[in-house]
Amino acid sequence: MSSSRHAALVTGGSSGIGLASAGALVSRGFAVTILGRNEARLRNAADRLGAEAARHGTQAAVHAVATDIADPAAAHAAVAAHAERWGRLDVLVNSAGVLAAGPLDSYDAATVAGVLDVDLRATILFCQAALPYLRKAARDGRPLIANIASISGKRADAGFSLYCAAKFGVVGFTAAIQQELAADGVSACAICPKLVDTPMADWARSWAPRSSMLRPEDVAAAVLRLVDLPAGRVPAELVLS
């Protein structure tokens, strides 16, 4: 176990916004735990983070944990593994997400459960599991929960009712815990980007050119901006357009 540096845990850390956020935090000297379902992709992500750290002149400290966050038991197990490795938790980035699109009557029960389990329930459970460590980190830092929501958590769109339900839930949940945890010195923000150039945006590529989309690094930069804000100045939501 090491507690010599600030530490962050990032769900969905093997690709996309999660990997970019982990890279941004590593470049700031954070020890980072990345979570994902695929062990090979996690190993590749850890190698990329090491290269990213070298470019910034820092020494990478990356712990990769393969887990399925749709499993209700995953949050406590993953946070415990992180704490065992690093000894503290200063930043939680809930980045893992799945998308389902289509008319309301096209969603079967498994699809509804799959989207809500990953996009909303896991966000809640990881915040619960991380909370004791975040409260402890407030003694000598500014602990942060960054929940990656979506512009679909602020704007309703036909054909995306299930995804909107999950992301509206993330935004509301984050606003509530931002108020609830302020006295503990723990901040929470729901980051709501427009289309981001990841595989989840493939459905839109026929009409939305890549140049019109945000990059994962743009969202990661927003995470760093939140990390840098003084306690009490972190907004409950941040829309990126």
Full CATH superfamily name: NAD(P)-binding Rossmann-like Domain
Q: Runs with pLDDT <50, length 5+?
A: none
What is the correct CATH architecture? Answer: 3-Layer(aba) Sandwich
In whole angstroms, the N-to-C terminal distance is: 40 Å
What series of H and E elements makes up the topology? EHEHEHEHEHEHE
Mean pLDDT score, rounded? 94
Q: How can the largest sheet be summarized? A: 7 strands, parallel
**What would you report as the Rg, rounded to the nearest angstrom?**
17 Å
Based on Cα principal axes, name the global outline: globular
Instruction: Please bin the fraction of helical residues.
Output: 40-55%
CATH class descriptor: Alpha Beta
**Annotated CATH topology:** Rossmann fold
Question: What is the strand and helix layout of this fold?
Answer:
Blueprint (H helix, E strand, L loop, with lengths): L6 E4 L5 H12 L3 E6 L2 H17 L6 E5 L7 H13 L4 E4 L14 H29 L6 E5 L12 H21 L5 E7 L22 H13 L8 E4 L1
Parallel strand pairs: 1-2, 1-4, 2-3, 4-5, 5-6, 6-7
Helix pairs in contact: 1-2, 1-6, 3-4, 4-5
